[in-house]
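Weekly puzzle thread! Below is a chain. First person to post its structure in token form gets bragging rights.
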Amino acid sequence: EALLSAFRPTSEIARLNARASVEPVQVSPEVFSLLLRARTLWEDCDGAFDITVGPLMLCWGFREASGRLPAEAEIEAARSMVGFRHVDFDEARRTVRFRRAGLALDLGAVGKGYAIDQAAQLLLENGVRSALTAVEIPRGLPGPLAGLLSTVDLCDNALAVSSVAEKSFAAEGKTYGHVMDPRTGQPAEWAVMSAVVVPGATEADVWSTALMVLGRPGLEKLRQAESGARGLVVGTDGEVASVGFDFVPCTTK
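Winning reply:
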């Protein structure tokens, strides 16, 4: 939280958001390394994951509330401030600079995974050899998807799950979720849930978000980018597609 939260004025990310469009801002080695990883992952998923979505999250009312429907002009204004290509890194000085005023980082799609990786490393360093963090089944999924979808064996791997049910709102007969497509400025609309299994929680967190944006075609990108990855996508039509999951729907009684 002290490093990555955009909601804490004293965090490194909040400091970047406040100053980096005016001057280069030096950050800690940990944050600099994470931002470089985020840039690589942004490239791997063709921009479907982008930590510069801060202006869009604010525009759509997801920053501190459950969401609202903005005008097209607001969306276009926010989109003009979004794009990892507008972030410059100076590795020698360990500084970050934004080339667009108003650009703001939001690490909501990567910070939790990074925190879990750090916690796992701390446990290992202190002699813990077996640990598990459970994931709650997302609420609000349609029909049979509200039950158990499948079981996943994990060994030295991380499972991340994303869902529109986490935060959404309805307007003009349509439901809008909090996962943004940074390329269009609109909430993702090809999936209602995704799950990813890869060795690192940071990458799992990112790719589960990216699959919400990319939908079923994103499974091939995941397979190409992460060797041995397992992925699952539940489309807005209720159809389930997976790679590496050996997915067999389970029925609930």
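Puzzle host: Confirmed. Bonus trivia for everyone else. DSSP finds seven helices and eleven strands in the chain.
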